[in-house]
Amino acid sequence: MLDNKQIKQLTVLLTIILFFKIAGFFTVSESVAITRVVKIFVRLMMTVFLLFIFARIKPRTGVASFTHNNRPAIVFYLLYFLLGFFSMLWTSDLMVTTLQLIMDVELLFFSYILFRFIVYVNHYSGDRQIRISHLLAISIWMIMLVMLIGKTVLPDKFFRLTHGGDVARLGGFLMNPNELGMLCVIGASMGYVELMKVKRKLFVMIVILTMVYGLVLTQSRSSMIAFMMVTGIFVNGSNSRLLKLGMYSAMILAVPFIINSIFIKAGDIQEVLSMTGRLPFWQALLTEALPEEPLWGFGFMRIYYTDYFAGVNTYAAKMTHNTFVQVLLNLGLVGFGIVLIQMFFTLRAYWSSKDKYKRLVFLGIFLPALVNSFTEFGIFGETNFGILFYQFLIMLWVVEFNPRLSVSEKITNNIIKHRQKKLRDV
C-alpha cells in the first residue's frame, strides 16, 4: 500500500508532468523549426518522465493487471490512425502527414500510460485517491498564471491585436486565443468537479475565478458559449437553491457585457453572422475541394493538393477551422464514418456509466472540446491539446484495474492459504 505522503508526492509529480505536457503545445519562438523541436522535445520528455515514475513505483506495490472496457471506442480510434497511416500512400504532403501521425500516436501512448498509472496507484492508495480533475485543474491553473503574469510583463507577446488593433486577445503568438479559451473552460469545469470532492473550497474557487478571468481576456465566443453550458449543467446539478439563484442571476447580468464585448467585437455584426468568414470557407471546402477526393481524402491532416486551399470567394487557409470538415478533407467519407462510429461508442460509455464522478469529468472536458471543434483545430484536427483531452475521455472508460487480483496479490494470497492449511493440519 502507498501512504498519504507518497500519494501527495505522486500527485505533485503528475501535475508537473501535465503542466509541461500542455505547455508543450504553446509556440515559444517565431522560428517554426525551433518551435517544432521544442514542442516535440518537451512532450516526449514528459512521456519518458511518466514512464520512469511508473517503473519506480511498481516495486513498492506489485505487478498489476489491467482490463480494458469499452473496447470498440479504442478499436475505432486506432482504426482512424491506421487509415491515417495508409493515407501516406496518397497524401499530398508525406512529411506533414507523417509528423502529425507520430505526434498524435505519441499523445495516445501518453494518455494510456497516464490512466494506467492513476488506476494503478489508486488501487494501492486506500482512501486518498489521485483525481484527474485535480491534476487538470491545477496544471491548467498554473499555465493561466503564467499567461496572466506574462500579459502584464510582456503584453506585446501575450496579447494578440485584432480588428485593426481595437481588440486585444490573450494568447498572443503563444497560443490561439480560442484554444486558450477552451483550456480555461476545461480548467474551470474541473474546478467545478473538485468543489464536489473537497472540503476546503476557497482555493478551488480561486482556481475557477482565475480561469474565468483568463477566459474573458481571450475574447473567445465559442469558449464563452461552452463555459455557459458547463456552468449551467454543474449549477443545475447542485442541491443548493441559493447557489443556483446566485449563479443564474450572475449569468443573466453578464449577458449584456458578453454580447457587447465578446460576441460583437468592434460592433461588427456581419462578422458574427459569417462566423468570422468560416461559413463561406466551409462551403467552398465542401463544394470545391471535397468532390475532388470524396472517398479517401487528401491524406492525414491535408485539406488540398497544396498547402493552402483558397475558394473562389474565400480566404486561403491550411486548416478548416472545423474538426469534422477536417476529417472529411483528410480521410474522406471513409474516415468521417470511422470518426462518427468512434464517437458513438465513447458517448455510449458515458450514457451507460453509473459512476457520477466520471460522468462529471466527461462532461466538463467533452463539452468545451466539442464546441471548440466546430470552429478550431478540434479533437480530430491538427495536433493540439484538444486531441489530448479527447484521448483522456476515451481512456476514462477504457482503462480499469483488473477485478481479478494482480499477480503479486495472487502470490501473497496463495502463501497465506498455504500457511493456513499447514496450521489446520497441525
Description:
The protein is mainly alpha-helical and 426 residues long. Helices cover 68% and strands 4% of the residues. It is built from 16 helices and six strands. It has a two-stranded antiparallel ribbon. The chain has a two-stranded antiparallel sheet with strand order 2-3. The protein has a two-stranded antiparallel ribbon with strand order 4-5. α1 crosses α5, α7 runs parallel beside α9 (221-236) and α9 (221-236) packs antiparallel against α10 (241-263). The radius of gyration is 23 Å and the shape is globular. The two termini are 32 Å apart. The mean pLDDT is 87.
**Gyration radius, in Å:** 23 Å
> What is the terminal-to-terminal distance?
32 Å
Strand content: under 5%
Largest sheet: number of strands, sense, barrel closure:
2 strands, antiparallel
Give average pLDDT, whole number: 87
- Tell me how many strands there are: 6
- Contiguous low-pLDDT stretches (5 residues minimum) are none
Shape: globular
Query: N-to-C SSE series?
Result: HHEHHHHEEHHHHHHEEHHHEH
